Amino acid sequence: MTMWFEAARLAVVANVALLVGLTAVWARNYRAHGAKHTLGLLVFGAFLLAENLLAVYLLYFHSTFHGWVYSAAPVAQRGMMALNVLELLALAFLVKITWE
Predict the structure, then answer these.
(1) Contact 38, 30 (CB under 8 A)
(2) Are 8 and 84 in contact (CB under 8 A)?
(3) N or C, which terminus of the chain has less Cβ within 10 Å?
C-alpha cells in the first residue's frame, strides 16, 4: 500500500470519530430544542457518517477495492486522499464552531 492509501485510511477514520461526536451533539440539541435547523444538521451528519463508515469498510476490509482500484490508478489514490483530507479539515472546523 502506498502513502496516499494510508493517508486516506487515516483521514476516513478521523472523519468517523468527528462525525460521531458531532451527531451526538446535534441529537442532544435536537431533543432539547426541536429546531428544524438542528434536525437538518443531524440528518446531514448521519448520511455523512454512513458514507464514511462505508469508506472504512472498503479501505480496511475489502481487498478487491484497494487491491484493484488503488494499484491500477495512482491518480485515484491521490484524489481520494485529497477528498478525505479536505473533508477532515471541514469537519474539524465544524467541530470547533459547534463546541464553542
Answers:
(1) yes
(2) yes
(3) C
Instruction: Give CB contacts under 8 A, 24+ apart, made by 22-26.
Output: 22/91, 22/94, 22/95, 22/98, 23/49, 25/98, 25/99, 26/98
CB atoms within 10 A of CB 69: 15
Query: CA–CA separation, 21 vs 46, rounded Å?
Result: 11
Q: Are 26 and 45 in contact (CB under 8 A)?
A: yes
pLDDT average per 10 residues of sequence, the chain (100 residues) = 80 97 96 96 96 91 61 70 94 93
Q: What pLDDT shows up at residue 68? A: 47
Three-class DSSP category at 94: helix
